[in-house]
Amino acid sequence: STQLSVGQLAELMKRNSSEIIKFLFMLGNMSTINTTLSDEDIELICMNFNVTPHKEIIIDEDDIEEQISNRVFDEKDLVSRPPVVTIMGHVDHGKTTLLDTIRNSHVTSGEFGGITQHIGAYQVSVSGKKVTFLDTPGHEAFTAMRARGAQITDIVVLIVAADDGVMPQTKESIDHARAAGVPIVVAVNKIDKAGANPERVMSELANEGVMPEEWGGDNIFVEISARNGQGVDDLLESILLVAEMQELKANPKTLASGTVVEAKLDKGRGPVATLLIQQGTLKAADSLVVGSAYGRIRKMTNDRGQELKTAGPSMPVEIIGLNEVPQAGDVFMVYDSYKKAAEIAQSRENKKIERERNATSARSLEDMARMI
Ligand code: GTP
Ligand code: MG
After folding, report:
1. Residues 86-107: pLDDT tens digits?
2. Most buried among 46, 103, 119, 298, by the most CB within 10 A?
3. Which-ligand-closest: CA of 93?
4. At 161, is the secondary structure helix, strand, or coil?
């Protein structure tokens, strides 16, 4: 390991160490300028601060400095990227219906592939601009990703049924968005229903501190019917507006890194992972490490099952070629050779075994203490 401290990494990254301490604190880790960072921490920090972690900084201790500075982005390489949006809200308030409506109305009919099966993320085009939607299976996935420090959502669409109002999971969603520091766009749904009361939703949300713009707040509210499509285009325009203010950027000119959105074992194809690319450009035969899994991509497809040669920032892709199934929320990183990827995965696996062994011996010490 590199034995790099917070202060040393900050210096190499040309950042203030307080920024790194704050970032680690948000992940639940207390640190000081002298704290030695784990390899995982270094990776997460690099990702968070737009530093490309594409060359392994861990293995060769002699030229750490040069390698890290290689990863630091030049401002001039950053280009704007599409926003990544998560729809959250209470059970039955219309998340799935909205995702389906958006997807169906923004895919050209007859397009090759068409809409096939469920995929954890997809991208649509709105007035010529792209928006990526994450179809997170629920709050748990969001929490798991956050716990790993993988911040992947730029905007939360908070969906509230106008015939039901603010409910427990509505509040939970607000908390998630706040903890992640992500702006909220409110979709007041089911306005086609007889019992719909959008005014009530507005005042209930205002009570939670989510204040409509027309009442002097920061949040855009859009009335929609996810079922019949009314207002959905307005919602998409509002998302683009918020995204524009965020000035989201990424560097497409580097080896790719990002986050696993979902993964499963397919009987015929082996481990299949949906990846969200956050930095760099992913190429069809790239070698990557994901947690302790690794492999060379055998096939890369988009959300419509079309095969891709390359994919850039904010693109969701499905890949096969990993040796095992990674977890949602795992960070993935491309390395410049298969050999390197295998080495890193192996060293992570070893560390994991060592950690588990240490945990076991700690437990038996406790047991012994109890016996005395
Ligand atoms: P969970 O995944 O279980 O949390 O629910 P969800 O938020 O995904 O809700 P879903 O999209 O499954 O919608 C729940 C029910 O509300 C379904 O029967 C939908 O058809 C209905 N629904 C969703 N949007 C609308 C709408 O705009 N108008 C009306 N009338 N019904 C809607
Ligand atoms: Mg649903």
Report:
1. 999 999 999 989 999 998 887 6
2. 46
3. 1
4. strand
CB 110 within 8 A of CB 62: no
Q: Is the CB of 190 under 6 A from ligand 1?
A: yes
Atom of ligand 1 nearest to the CA of 228: 27
For residue 260, report the phi and psi dihedrals to the nearest 5 degrees. -80, 125
Residue 52: closest CA among 291, 362, 333: 333
DSSP H helical ranges for 55-182:
64-71, 95-105, 139-147, 168-180
Q: What does R_g of the chain's alpha carbons equal in angstroms?
A: 22
Minimal-distance CA residue to ligand 1 atom 18: 92
Closest ligand 1 atom to 230 CA: 27
Q: Which amino acid is at 43?
A: E
* Helix/strand/coil for 263: strand
Q: What's the CA gap between 3 and 298, in Å, rounded?
A: 35
153 neighbors 334 (Cβ within 8 angstroms): no
Residue 199 in contact with residue 229, Cβ under 8 Å? no
A 10 A CB-CB count for 271 gives: 19
Q: What is the end-to-end Cα distance of the chain in Å, rounded?
A: 37
In what helix (H) or strand (E) does residue 129 lie, and over which residues does it extend?
strand 129-134
Which positions ≥6 away from 71 have C-beta within 8 Å?
46, 51, 52, 53, 54, 55, 57
Q: Is residue 91 within 6 Å of ligand 1 at its C-beta?
A: yes
Q: What is the DSSP string of 183-248?
A: -EEEEEE-TTSTT--HHHHHHHHHHTT--BGGGT-SB-EEE--TTT-TTHHHHHHHHHHHHHHHT-
Work out which ligand 1 atom sits closest to the CA atom of 169. 4
| Mean pLDDT for back-to-back runs of 10 residues, the chain (372 residues) | 78 82 81 85 79 44 39 71 93 93 72 56 92 74 55 90 96 87 95 96 97 94 97 97 93 87 92 92 94 92 94 96 90 87 82 72 58 54
The residues whose Cβ lies within 5 A of ligand 2, an ion, are: 95-96
Q: How many residues appear in the chain?
A: 372
Rounded to an integer, what distance in angstroms lies between the CA atom of residue 59 and that of residue 29? 24
Q: Which residues are paired to 159 by β-bridges?
A: 89, 187
User: Residue 307: beta bridge partners?
Assistant: 301
